[in-house]
Amino acid sequence: MRGLVHVRFISAMIALAGAAVAVTPVAASAQGSYSPYDESPTAALARYVRTLASSPKDFGALIGAGRSALELGDAQAAAGFFARADEVNPQSPMPQAGMGAVSVANGEPLAAMPYFARAQQLGASMSQIGCDRGLAYDLLGQQGQAQADYRAALNGPDAQEARRRLALSLAISGNKAEALQTLAPLSAKGDAATGRVRAFVLALTGDPTGAMRAADAAMPGSWARVSPFLQRLASLQPGQKAAAVNLGIFPDADGAVLASASTGYPPAQASSPATTDRLASIDELLHAPSPPPAPTFTATPPARVAYAAPVQRKPQQQAARHAPHKIWLQLASGSNAEALPSQFRRIKSRNRDLFDGITGFVAQSADRARLVIGPFRGASDAETFAEDLQTIGVDAFKWTNSDSDRIVPLGTE
Fold first, then answer.
1. Rounded distance, CA 115 to CA 97, Å?
2. In what order do the strands lie in the sheet with 327-334?
3. Which SS3 state, helix, strand or coil, does residue 393 take?
4. Hey, CA dihedral for 1, 282, 46, 48, is it positive or negative?
5. Residue 406 contacts residue 371 (beta carbons within 8 Å)
6. How many CB atoms lie within 10 A of CB 193?
7. Do the Cβ atoms of 11 and 263 come closer than 8 Å?
8. Which pLDDT score is estimated for 59?
9. Are 131 and 125 in contact (CB under 8 A)?
10. What pTM was estimated for this model as a whole?
């Protein structure tokens, strides 16, 4: 991915892009919004931090702090809170679902899928995680699956946000009439975000003039300033459209990713290795003598609770290369690398949900070819997924590649 730059869309565009569909973390969806009180995310986060200062292992406060941080656009801090919550209660689906939401917020839908799958295994329902997993599918250009997830979430605590995202997804699919019908119940309730979402729906379905009128109605005087953004939406690819209207990530004419300043989340940054101490900034905050009303956090790469995203490559970079030492799970091996794709399909058929978002790789050594998945951040993460695979009758074991191994995604070997 090329470097990300901030597009200087003026304040109207910022509000239009961000306030319309701020992503809601699903980590504690079973309990509704980020706070049981009538308070802002900033106030909620400060309250949770005060609780954690005296009780660092308070699971509810950790989850609440993660959700509030995510609501405020600090995905890195949210990841730290969810990671700590997972250490306190690894059998709860809430930290895993929260990490899925963090990955989505970072523009990493493939990395999000294993978290959502694990959350389901631990008891999360689709009404709880569908709002955020649906957005992951939208970012992948799989609008049909996204819409199914959003519809499931219409019966859950994130119903209003799921309805907005469903309308946008339908518009991405070209279904203008159904998208507008989906928004109707929110319009009837006087939902403030509906006007902005309607502007996006019209722009996505090829009506930039109507979109600019809708934007101007929602935010008087804004049409001239937001028109470049709205006029280009219909020309984007489906996944790009979803990223633009949900995360504020917009491609320029050369294909580079441009990011508008979203009030929900900041632009996703290029992936980088995880910090050794993923909770350092959280520990620092919890030991502060008096937490501030609006706490800020040291920016650190997002932590991973159980899984690491596969190596991401541009299409032109799919050629084999020597890989640094990493931990993988080996599913099969043999002398014939051409047989591995069919083996991977058979393994996936045992539980497609568990393998959702998981990419298979061929590791070519001097004496054999291996079917592997990963890489994982550490041995414990690999063991966690190996145990999950064992529940569906799939034997897997840890394998660390050498400098001479050639590792490529299935289909490019």
1. 6
2. 397-400, 327-334, 369-376, 360-364, 406-409
3. coil
4. positive
5. no
6. 17
7. no
8. 96
9. no
10. 0.59
> Does residue 295 have a cis peptide bond before it, meaning omega lies within 30 degrees of 0?
no
List strand residue ranges (DSSP E) for 37-149, in order: none
Return the number of other C-beta atoms located less than 10 Å from residue 89's C-beta: 15
pLDDT tens, position by position, 320-351: 445 568 888 999 888 888 888 888 888 888 87
Q: Which of 329, 402, 328 is CA-nearest to residue 365?
A: 402
Q: Please check whether residue 67 is in contact with residue 34, taking contact to mean a CB–CB distance below 8 angstroms.
A: yes
Which amino acid is it at 385? F
Distance CA 89, CA 97 (A): 13
Q: Which helix (H) or strand (E) holds 190?
A: none
Say how far apart CA 126 and CA 146 lie, in whole Å: 12
CA angle 43, 48, 51 (to 5 degrees): 130
Strands 327-334 and 360-364: unpaired
User: For 90-144, how does the pLDDT look when each residue is reduced to its tens digit (9 = 90+)?
Assistant: 999 999 999 999 999 988 999 999 999 999 999 999 999 999 999 999 999 999 9
3-class secondary structure, 316: helix
